[in-house]
Amino acid sequence: MTTLIAYTIALLAATTIAVQVKVLYKSGLTERDPLLFFGLFLVMLTSLIYEAGILLRGQAGQVAVIGLVLVTVLAAISKSVRSRVKHKIQLSVFWPAIIAALLFSVNALMNPEIDLPQIIGRSLGILTLTLIGLAFALSNLKLHDVAATLVLATSFMFMIAPLSGLNWRPCDKFKCGPFDALYTGPFQSENTVALFCGVGLLCAFLTYAGRSSVITIVMFALTLYATESRTSQLALAVGLAVWPIASLATSWCRSTGLNPSALASRSRLVTVAASLGTAGLFIVGFRLVTEAEPSDFSNRGKVWILGLSALGEDWFSGLGIDRWYTYQSVGAVPSHFPHSEYLFLLFTGGIGAVIGLFIIYTQSIKKSFIHRGAPPFAISYVAFLGVTGMTELFWNPIAADGNVFVMFPLIFLLSLVKSEVSTEDRPTIPVPSSRRRASAPRVRSIY
């Protein structure tokens, strides 16, 4: 049965790729920025291959990911220079890189015994996030394009999963999948697969383009079901429940007859409400950690208790990621990471890192009102990650690993620049070179 399910997922994934390519072709991507789109796809695919441990491993794999990112950025810069289009780059797009720099600094100060190769390795995440932010700031892509790259890259991994060996692991004392095993695909953990499926499903709803897109939704839903990863399933349920509410709120913001001042006021009100909801997720996340019993959440409670004990009173500064490894070597903490995004950031970067993640979430929601159709997705995506982070580590800011692409939609939203003119409301028409010199600064749409 498991073999049949694995090949069914692979077949659905292959069909999904064909469907997505067709949708992208009809969407006008070839007139927007196909080169940068293809570069981003290669970056995401390479990071997933690295995460799966296929061909690329260690710092060599991380360097390969960064190399592709660098080539993508250079291509974007080259196109910008050739077309003589000005781009406004704001500090907000570099917030993820700033958090990575904070974690790097804390680690270097609190763990002076680490050697040079380790220091270099810890800086790769900063470089990756900086370059990705720059690439998005220089691009003419839409949020739908970024979502499509996520769908394509993850679909490709599930398509080749049967070729990578065993795609299942036995049930354990905490859970057992509906097919008497837990689907891991080409990755090491079913929780990793479930995280990617949750991201893929939300992106699939964003890129939905008719009945053929149902195949994409079915593929991710079946894969998520086969993992029996309850955290991602619950997080996705919350995200999908939030989506229609956010859509109604967005429609309210765009009510006809509103003057720009009233429109901005309503948008701010929705942003504040979404930010308060996000703060609530952070509070719940920390309450789970601080009030846990050892057996809670498949023994995650024990991990959290030991992690907080090791952190001691250093909540403000944190102790750095290498201190966790040091404590692992003496048995003070378990042999894996904290199973909580909130505890991980607190331990490795202190309160500043936690606040930084909150700023990324809230600024992404705020900036989403600049891009047509983005607020419901942004609010839903933040809700999904906020719930996922309660019992899983989904992003390590100072690592250029396979999970870094989870932040790509948020980084894209952070790159948006408000303008009085909407480029998405205009028809896509090739501009003669003689007129490009006088073209307006590149912007994305605004309500």
Provide a short characterization of the protein structure.
By secondary structure, this protein is mostly helical. About 65% of the residues lie in helices and about 0% in strands.
Question: Explain this structure to me?
Answer:
- The chain has 447 residues and is an all-alpha fold.
- The chain has helices at residues 2-26, 29-32, 34-52, 58-83, 95-110, 116-137, 143-160, 190-206, 214-227, 230-253, 260-290, 296-311, 321-329, 341-368, 374-391, 408-414, 433-436; strands spanning 168-169, 182-183.
- A two-stranded antiparallel ribbon has the order 1-2.
- The longest helix has 31 residues, at 260-290.
- The protein is globular, with a radius of gyration of 22 Å.
What are the salient characteristics of this protein?
single chain; 1% strand; mainly alpha; 447 residues; disordered C terminus; two-stranded antiparallel ribbon
